[in-house]
Structures are given as structure tokens and as C-alpha cells.
Specification:
It is a single chain. By secondary structure, the chain is of the alpha+beta class. The protein folds into 2 domains: about 60 residues; about 160 residues, Thrombin, subunit H, CATH 2.40.10. The protein contains 3 helices and 14 strands. It has a 6-stranded antiparallel barrel. It has a 6-stranded antiparallel β-barrel with strand order 8-9-10-13-12-11. The longest helix is centred in the first third of the chain and has 61 residues. About 20% of the residues are buried.
């Protein structure tokens, strides 16, 4: 025992030195690990956004042009639909024409462009979207807005580079509609409880409306061409006013997945608005 005590006395400084050396190595390793972690985080904070931007650029250069080309092709197809035109009969007689001859002239009434949604809400009492085109791109107020699957909303405000869209999911939205095959006209509104469902109002109770019937724009407004899909009938009930039905409509547009939209301009809207301004409410 005495020999052990003597050994510790003689080797005390060596033991202390060894312990301090071990502690130094451990602390140095910990410090290096921390510094390495901090460095890695610092590098990631710089490289991360670059990687994200790079991935976006790769997506844009590889897939973007293809998607843009498809959108442009869709627009060309849409522009040639019958509901994009009005037809007029030219009955002007000349010495060379037959009295019963008619010349039908097609006049373009609507035109299309497109934009990308950069902001949207779906879970609020008043929902909005913002698209990445504005006045300098030819966007103006009251242009109809369509998703690839159906009616989406109406342009309400425009700046130089952007435009605000009021979707169907807004309490002030009103869209003139027709339900087929019953061919009954009404108004599609949203009551704020479900982003997938709207209501078709003012359909008489005697109308034969069935689940699955289609609801289209009826062309009565100066905004939407006739025959654009709004949705399908989901539920039919007798409303509080026994004269009319309560009709739930499953919306064709899925607002949570909307990225590209088509904007429709009525080329004669100003002329029509001028005429309607002279109407009297009696």
C-alpha cells in the first residue's frame, strides 16, 4: 500500500499531464466537430438556395419549353372553337347576286392568352389569386379566367406586371350558368364552406335536375363565352324557398392544384357595356 502511495507521489505530475492531455484531445475533437457542423450549416445556407435555383432552372430549361408549347397549342385550339365567334348574315344584294343567296361571316368575339398563378388562397372567406401577367401583357379587368379543367374566376385588378383574380371561391362571385340537359338558367355562387363546392341558384322547383348533370356558362354576361364548364351537379334539394331548388355543384376547377390559367378577352366588351349602361331598372 505504501509502495502504491509512493508511486503516485513520484508519478503525480506525469499522471496530471496525461489527464490534461487526454482532456485537451477530447475538447479539441469536440471543437472541431462543432466547427465542422457550423461550417457545414454555413455552406448549406449558401449552397442550398443555389441548388434550389439550379433545380428550378433545370426544370425550366428541360420541361418549361415543352409545357409552354403545350399551353400555346391549347390556346390555338381554344381560339378556333365555335363559341369564340359570332356569325352574321350578309344579305346585301348586288346585281350579280341571287335574292336568296346568303353569305355568313365569322367574326372573332373572344381571344385567349395565358399566365401562371404565383399566389392563391382557398381556405379564407374571401379568396384571391395573383397571376404573373399584367397590363403590359395585354391583361385587363373583367377578363374571364379558366383553368385547364373549367371556369376559375375573373380578373378584378391589374398592375403593370401582375393581375388579381377573383375566383369562384369568393362571396361576391356571380357567374351566369345553364344546367343541361334541362337547359335551365341560374347563377353560380359560393357560400364559403367548401372550396370544392358552389351552388346554382334560381332554378325552378319543377325543373328535372339530376346528379351528374353539367353546369356551363350560358354566355349572358360580357365576360364568359357560352359553353365553358363550371362543374357538375352533386346534390339537389328543395330549398327554403319552395319555388326553387338548392343545387350543389362540384366545381371543375381544383383550386389547390391550379398553376396555369387561360385568360379570355371579350373583344366587343366595351361596345356591349356602353349599350347595357343605357338599360333602365324598372
Amino acid at each position: 500500500m505504501n509502495n502504491l502511495i509512493e508511486f503516485f507521489k513520484k508519478a503525480f505530475h506525469i499522471i496530471v499531464l496525461a489527464v490534461l492531455l487526454i482532456l485537451s484531445i477530447v475538447m479539441l475533437g469536440t471543437s472541431l466537430s462543432f466547427n465542422e457542423h457550423s461550417l457545414a450549416r454555413g455552406v448549406q445556407s449558401i449552397v442550398g438556395p443555389i441548388q434550389k435555383s439550379g433545380a428550378g432552372m433545370i426544370h425550366r430549361f428541360r420541361l418549361g419549353p415543352e409545357n409552354e408549347e403545350l399551353v400555346k397549342q391549347n390556346i390555338e385550339l381554344m381560339r378556333e372553337r365555335e363559341n369564340m365567334y359570332i356569325e352574321k348574315d350578309d344579305t346585301t344584294l348586288t346585281e350579280m347576286s341571287q335574292p336568296d343567296s346568303l353569305h355568313r361571316e365569322r367574326i372573332r368575339m373572344y381571344d385567349y392568352t395565358y399566365a401562371h398563378v404565383i399566389f392563391r388562397t382557398v381556405d379564407r372567406a374571401f379568396n384571391y389569386m395573383i397571376v404573373d401577367k399584367g397590363a403590359k401583357d395585354g391583361i385587363c379587368r373583367d377578363m374571364a379566367v379558366l383553368s385547364p379543367s373549367g371556369v376559375a374566376g375573373v380578373v378584378t385588378d391589374v398592375s403593370s406586371n401582375f393581375a388579381t383574380v377573383r375566383p369562384i371561391l369568393h362571396p361576391e362571385s356571380r357567374i351566369s350558368a345553364v344546367v343541361t340537359p334541362a337547359n335551365q338558367n341560374g347563377t353560380v355562387i359560393w357560400e364559403g364552406d367548401d372550396p370544392r363546392v358552389a351552388y346554382l341558384e334560381a332554378i325552378p322547383q319543377h325543373s328535372e335536375i339530376n346528379i351528374g348533370d353539367s353546369v356551363f356558362t350560358n354566355g349572358y354576361s360580357n365576360i364568359f363565352p357560352k359553353g365553358l364548364l363550371i362543374g357538375t351537379v352533386k346534390e339537389v334539394q328543395v330549398g327554403n324557398n319552395a319555388s326553387f331548388l338548392t343545387i350543389k355543384v362540384k366545381l371543375a376547377t381544383k383550386y389547390t392544384d391550379i398553376y396555369t390559367v387561360y385568360l379570355v378577352e371579350n373583344l366587343f366588351k366595351s361596345e356591349l357595356d356602353t349599350l347595357k349602361a343605357n338599360f333602365k331598372d324598372e
